[in-house]
Amino acid sequence: MSSFITKELAGCKYPATDFVIRHTAADGSYEYEHHIYLIPEGSNYAYDLCLDTAWGNEREYAVAKSFEMNKECL
Question: Is-above-0.90 flag for pTM?
Fold first, then answer.
């Protein structure tokens, strides 16, 4: 079974959503999968930042806030 936690991130150069998936095994153990999705205005794509959770949320948020894409790629 999986459950989801989402929230919008403020202070990013692009609209961003913090997305956490909690996977629960039959034995009751669980693990988290963390993604940050950046969705530039006018883009047909969402960009998934799947970062090492050992970094911790604050460091992951700092990457998302400083991330800048080449405008030719949008």
Answer: no
Q: Quick one: tokens of 40?
A: 């530039």
Q: Distance between the two ends of the chain, CA-based, in angstroms?
A: 35
29-48 pLDDT, tens digit each: 988 888 999 988 888 888 99
Query: Is the torsion defined by CA of 11, 5, 45, 57 positive or negative?
Result: positive
DSSP per-residue letters across 9-74: ESS-SS-EEEEEEEEE-TTS-EEEEEEEEE--TT-S--EEE---GGG-HHHHHHHHHH----GGG-
The β-bridge partners of 4 are 21
* Amino acid, res. 20: V
Which residue shows structure tokens 């883009």?
43
